[in-house]
Design goal:
Rossmann fold; about 25% strand
């Protein structure tokens, strides 16, 4: 395959066809383009919520092409025993990391059928999601570009240096309103002028995600060019300086 002449969408389809995850190809293509066109901006890429690395593989591919860019992947990376069955039969998770209890799927839990169909089989092959993620990164030959961080966005920013900069943030962590707002606040301070913030499951079936975008992005003078790009992917750009004029 000639990388420069083979359509990127074809490369993405080939790259991700066996990687477990739920990101559709049109969203992956959008993420690639957003990352690719940050060439020339300082900083790295941050992904909040990575699962087995389906979208990470695409962001990593873009990072390799533009050069001088790392992809920081922040996830709870739960093991099988971190999942708990709720009284209604659905599933949530709790992970202890660095003395902090991090929860997932608190508001919109995972019902029994999708848990048994999509999540439980993963643990038949791997002890944890982190093992599956690392396998993906190894198969995609992205070990030199992708850095995994076990935790949430708050733990990530606590460990980040004062000089850390981000030119693209993809937020796909826990989908309740407070969690999304927290992710936005944590990463906005590191996002360089002209950088992009992207969201999964926006204006689709997760009210918490949509309301957080309205309150923290659309009503924030520090962002402009907010646009729903696919069925569930929203992007917005940080202004280059001062307040936006639109």
């Amino acid at each position: 395959m000639d990388i420069k002449t083979t359509p990127i969408v074809t490369q993405i389809e080939t790259l991700t066809q066996e990687i477990h995850g739920w990101s559709p190809v049109d969203q992956l293509y959008t993420l690639f383009n957003m990352a690719y066109f940050t060439a020339g901006l300082e900083g790295d890429i941050v992904e909040i919520g990575c699962w087995c690395g389906r979208s990470t593989s695409v962001l990593g591919t873009a990072a390799r092409l533009i050069g001088n860019t790392k992809v920081h992947c922040v996830d709870l990376f739960p093991g099988k025993h971190d999942w708990k069955r709720n009284p209604d039969g659905s599933h949530s998770l709790e992970v202890e990391i660095k003395g902090k209890t991090c929860s997932g799927y608190k508001t919109q839990t995972v019902w029994k059928e999708p848990y048994e169909r999509d999540i439980a089989p993963l643990y038949e092959k791997h002890d944890s999601v982190l093992d599956a993620f690392r396998e993906t990164i190894r198969k995609c030959r992205l070990e030199d570009l992708v850095i995994a961080h076990r935790g949430d966005s708050s733990l990530f920013v606590q460990s980040a240096s004062e000089t850390f900069r981000c030119k693209l943030a993809f937020i796909d962590g826990d989908h309740d309103y407070e969690s999304v707002c927290c992710d936005i606040r944590n990463l906005e301070k590191f996002l360089v002028p002209g950088g992009w913030m992207c969201f999964d499951d926006a204006f689709s079936s997760y009210d918490g995600v949509s309301q957080a975008i309205r309150d923290c992005i659309l009503d924030n003078s520090g962002f402009y060019l907010g646009q729903q790009m696919t069925r569930k992917c929203f992007v917005a750009r940080k202004v280059n300086g001062g307040a936006r004029s639109d």
